[in-house]
Amino acid sequence: MMFTKDAPMKLKSTLLQLGLVLTLCSSIFATQNIQKISSNANYKQKFKPFLIVSQRMPHLTKLVKQNWNNKELNLVDDQKKELLEVRQRTMTSMKDLSPRIKQLEEDIIIFTLKNESENDIFQMVKELAKLKAEATKTHIQCIRDTKGILTQKQFDFLTK
Predict the structure, then answer these.
(1) What does the alpha-carbon distance between residue 108 and residue 96 come to, in Å, rounded to a whole number?
(2) What is the CATH number of the domain that holds 111?
(3) How many domains does the chain have?
(4) Under a CB-based contact definition with an 8 Å cutoff, are residues 61 and 146 in contact?
(5) What is the value of pTM for the model shown?
(6) Of 79, 63, 65, which Cα lies nearest the Cα of 151?
(7) Is 148 helix (H, G, I), strand (E, B) or coil?
(8) What is the per-residue pLDDT across 69-124, written as a single tens digit (0 to 9) for each?
(9) How many CB atoms lie within 10 A of CB 148?
């Protein structure tokens, strides 16, 4: 093989192109693996938008809805009207918060696996904590409002 005067320059150019191709390929491979990891069924858990996830924090309006015409619960029309308002208020708030919380959780996972800026990740964590706190406050308010509408006997029936 015969080298010309500009052979070192061509070699540098070829090596640079090869480096760019390898970088691009590794980036594509890493992105595919991150997507596979974040969508892997083993990593999926039931989504909970709250800070406090406990059986002792019941979803009362859901329980009321499931027992709406239960004779033992014995809801009267005025209670039903008020309970529907509480459920509507709660669900409206949660429908706004839940997708934002889910997206932030996913973004934090992806940014962490991609080695993105720690500062950016921590800002997302702060925002996530704020949104989860808001969801938890909504849940607490829902419990308090619902409990205020029900008699003690009705509340005990739902939480037994």
Answers:
(1) 19
(2) 1.10.287
(3) 1
(4) yes
(5) 0.67
(6) 79
(7) helix
(8) 999 999 999 999 999 999 999 999 999 999 999 999 999 999 999 989 999 999 99
(9) 10
